[in-house]
Amino acid sequence: MNRKKALVAGVSAATLALTLAACGGGDDDKSSKDKFNETLQSGGKNPDAVGPAPQPEGAQTGGEITILAPDPDDGPTSLDPAGLWSVTDNAIAQDLLFRSLTTWQQNPETGEYTLVPDLATDLGTPNEDFTEWTFTLKDGIKWETGDPVTAEEVKFGMERSFDAETFATGPGAAYSKPYFEGGDTYNGPYAKGAEDFPAISVDGNTLTLKMSTPFAEMDYYGIFPAMGPVPLDAPAADYGLKPLSTGPYKIEKYVPNQELVLVPNDQWDPATDPARNQFPDKYTFEFGGDNAVADKTALSDSGSTTISTAMLSNDYTKAIEDGLQDQVLVGPQPCTSFVMPNYDKVKELEVRQALAFAYAYEDIWSAGGYLPGVTRANGVTDPELGFGLLPPGMAGRIPWNPEIDGETIQYDPEHAKELLAKAGYEPGEYEVSFVYDATSQEGKDAAKQRELGYEESGFSVKAYPYTAGSLYDVWTDPDNALYKKINLLGTAWCQDWPSAATFVPPILETGQPYNTGNFSEESIDAEMDRIRTLPVDEQADAWGALENKVMTEFQPVINAGFYQGTYAIGSDIGGFANDTTVGGAPDYRTIFVK
Amino acid sequence: MTLPAADLAVHGESSSAPPTEAARKSIAGRSPTRIAFDRLRKDPIAVICFVIVLFFAAIAIFAPWVQSLFGVSTDTVLASTRIDLVTRLPKIGPPNHGFTMDHPFGVAPGSGTDNLAVWIEGCRTSLFLATVATVLSTFIGVTLGLVAGFVGGAVDAVISFFTDLFLSFPFLLGALAVAPIISERYGTDIDKLRVVSFYSLVFILVIFGWMGVARLVRGEVLSLREREFVKAARVIGVPTSRILVREILPNLLAPIVVSVSLSLPGYVAAEAGLSYLGIGVFGRESWGQTVNGATSYWEIYPLFLLEPVIGIAVLVVALNLLGDAIRDAFDPKTRR
After folding, report:
1. Where are the domains positioned within chain A?
2. Closest partner residue to B88 among A16, A464, A465, by Cβ?
3. What is the mean pLDDT of residues A245-270?
4. What sequence ranges are listed for the domain Solute-binding protein family (chain A) (predicted)?
5. Could you write out the three-class secondary structure of A528-588?
């Protein structure tokens, strides 16, 4: 999942905190450092889990909860299951509205997440080389209308994900099309002359999925609403405005990018659902509002049942000063921000390594509105975090914190100069250029710090301001005038599920859209293809090893920090947790009103 | 010279004696402008405001020297040298530490840039931009007003039409539309962008700012051109351009001075407002931009927001009061 909104807005999602603040959340006293390390103990599987879902301590039903997702988070443009692939929207859809083949279950005691069956009776049965998966659907699952959910409807829903044109924002192009047999030529049930899609076959209550490439993580992919049912008569375009629910809540009112009101779905049967709960009587989501207002509301008496999903840094500091530690939570987001040198332009390994020493990590974070060590962190703030691709906690991850010519990575202009000299450049000879977000003071301040760091390290610098929109407009568009001028690009990437397979290829594989630096090495591409065919229990370690190898041999990206987010939580909210499986959003499965 | 009060009763007629020869000469020699300035000098508000404006102007003009006098500069420093990375608030000066002469206004949270240097540069940007915009819009407005009023007929109709057209066009909308076009067009050339963004802002302010002067001048010219001295000049064959410049323009001095003095503060405020909206100048410090970045610090670092706000408020109020005083001084009907 990309974290476009967060990156572009940078500041708004940013957080400023005191040391105290790191232990926000009240129930633990771990330092921020520990928090980063314990980020994701998730990723385990439990194929035998059955409903009802585990309940957090003291949980009770009733009450109404308001969620404020302030600017720049403008919420879902459409709630079509096939088009959902962003942190905010998927958290709501997966936890409350749409059931799919599998889902995540939170252990309310430890906070760990386990992959459990949802619509299916188990986590699917793959054949030996993961080219065929069989899922058997549970009985007694109903639409909000009371009609039973059929295997045909699940098949139809999955087929829709192949329509990468209608559902351009969805995960289908990344997972459905490349893996399913014939997926590269099949364009969904709405395409002209669409025929039956033989890769998904239905026999009674059983779905059989045929893959062209071994897909060991089909069970993880099953968490997406795109891998769930859609009524057979659903239209292509407007279904997302009034989708039918299968989860514990249904839509009462939905204004795209503004408001979403959910009320309990009486056709949902907790006995069939091992993950979700139905506590409050109403959920009201408001998107794109004013940040300061959202924070103040959630912390005031009148907002005792309100949650703000992205606190302003200063409101956070104020809350800590006012002794409201219990009402703020710093939660990890399994995301990493990168500086990506254009691999065709910045050819020397030493120069790319020098860039890692020339990035004034903590100064840039501070000027950009992030709190070093809390809302942004990497090996600079804690050597154990390292400077690799994979965010902390991911299976198979080996923290990458190497010595490069006798020095570990940190802001070290002298060492950067030495590396430049090794590549044959005098100070001031090598020009780096990047584009930055000039719509906010923090964006400009951060760019100035970055520029200063590069200059002190012996680079000459050109920094181009960009105000016309998202920086991805420049980074992902080779025809953009600025794209041609710059040699340092970037990306902020979040996992889709706790597996390096959702992280390493999108960043390092040739031709991937968010591989903005155009890193391309045949040997690495081949190695990625090889890992995909490995037995599933060997894959995680293989990805981890590959990541280390690539970073050591090529340094294709510079780690610009791992992410954490902040929430303001009303005083009457119970069972609040940060859902890392979806990328860092409130876990709506367990929230209740005290 | 007045007679003693006692004598008034005796004579019971004129309250003043006929002026002496010298006094008569001195009165006869005073132009309306001179009278106005004499009145201004005696207006304490005008004098105070003038001193304040002069103070800001001096800061703007001598900005580099003022900065080196205090030993501050807008240069970027590594944030960590001045900022506590735990709180992102300054390690030195307000809000948590005492006053320091190194940074009299404190340093900006997050980045650690010196506030005083930024403030001085912001003052410079504001005044420079307002002055350029005022001069240009006044020049355009006066020229068009003169021509429209004097020539009349079709020319007047056309110019009046455009005056009304621009008056009816929403200023903010125009500014919001032009700014992204400029940055898109010149986004690949940083040095050019710095100059272009400044003059595009001037352009926006001028293109939506000349109409008031033009209307004012046109109205005055309409009445002036029927006066005897203008008619006499025409009769003896003085060229139109010369009539406009030598006969009519001097009589318009008062309204022009008034309009200049009132449009300056308008432009200062407009620049701050546009910068706050993110469509201001690029590559220069500006009070509006500082305010924009500082609003969220109000509760934990109020001084950071107050500095540019006070700067804008004092300068704009002083300029406005001075403008009012000038208007009063030039208006023979007011008595204060």
Report:
1. 43-282+570-593, 332-564
2. A16
3. 93
4. 114-512
5. HHHHHCCCHHHHHHHHHHHHHHHHHHHCCCEEEEEEEEEEEECCCEECCCEECCCCCEECC
